[in-house]
Task: inverse folding
């Protein structure tokens, strides 16, 4: 329920915080997978973590409907998790691309890599899913501590209610809304409330993360207009 007090911090809360947006996403969705949107959401979360850590930046802006934003190496070079450092390495060696282009690039491997990272940290356990079930959306992991999902959900509900949120929480809200995977983590009319709240919360993000959030929201609006995720490609 919106406005409810935040859940108590779960065991391993510090380890979860260290995994940033990607960790919170997998925990609150239960490692949900099986659709392009699910894969892109994990990739976007990983890209947000790189932006919030300062290892990637975004240059340029959208002009006259043309996205001239490009993901480039950021000023920070050390002190990040190996998976986040790998994002910077890839950005350094590949021709600059749009934020959405990088979501698609990272989606090739991010889902498995992030789940492996969280499982190794003891935050989630992988679920054994029959091969036939993988043809549809399914859960690939579950939090070791069920309270972890409730903690993340309470922070999202606070943002949807219009209260200030930490940059990582606002970024997570942008991922869920922008990639259209909010159903499940939030219920009822929270998706609509979240979209409105994000318009107010985005300006408070650091520059690179704000540009990523704007790109995801632009993509969601475009998809909503044509009625399908890839309709404007």
Result:
């Amino acid at each position: 329920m919106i406005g409810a007090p935040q859940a108590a911090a779960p065991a391993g809360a510090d380890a979860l915080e260290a995994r940033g947006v990607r960790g919170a996403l997998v925990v609150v969705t239960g490692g949900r997978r099986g659709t392009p949107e699910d894969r892109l959401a994990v990739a976007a979360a990983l890209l947000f973590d790189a932006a919030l850590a300062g290892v990637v930046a975004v240059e340029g802006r959208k002009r006259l409907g043309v996205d001239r934003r490009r993901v480039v190496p950021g000023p920070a070079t050390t002190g990040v998790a190996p998976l986040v450092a790998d994002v910077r390495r890839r950005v350094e060696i590949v021709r600059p691309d749009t934020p959405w282009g990088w979501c698609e690039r990272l989606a090739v491997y991010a889902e498995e890599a992030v789940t492996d990272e969280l499982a190794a940290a003891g935050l989630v356990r992988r679920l054994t899913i029959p091969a036939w079930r993988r043809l549809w959306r399914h859960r690939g992991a579950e939090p070791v501590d069920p309270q972890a999902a409730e903690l993340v959900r309470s922070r999202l509900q606070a943002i949807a209610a219009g209260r200030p949120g930490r940059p990582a929480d606002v970024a997570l809200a942008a991922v869920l809304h922008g990639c259209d995977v909010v159903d499940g983590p939030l219920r009822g009319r929270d998706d609509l409330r979240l979209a409105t709240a994000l318009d107010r919360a985005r300006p408070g993000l650091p520059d690179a993360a704000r540009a990523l959030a704007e790109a995801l929201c632009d993509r969601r609006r475009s998809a909503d207009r044509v009625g399908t995720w890839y309709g404007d490609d």
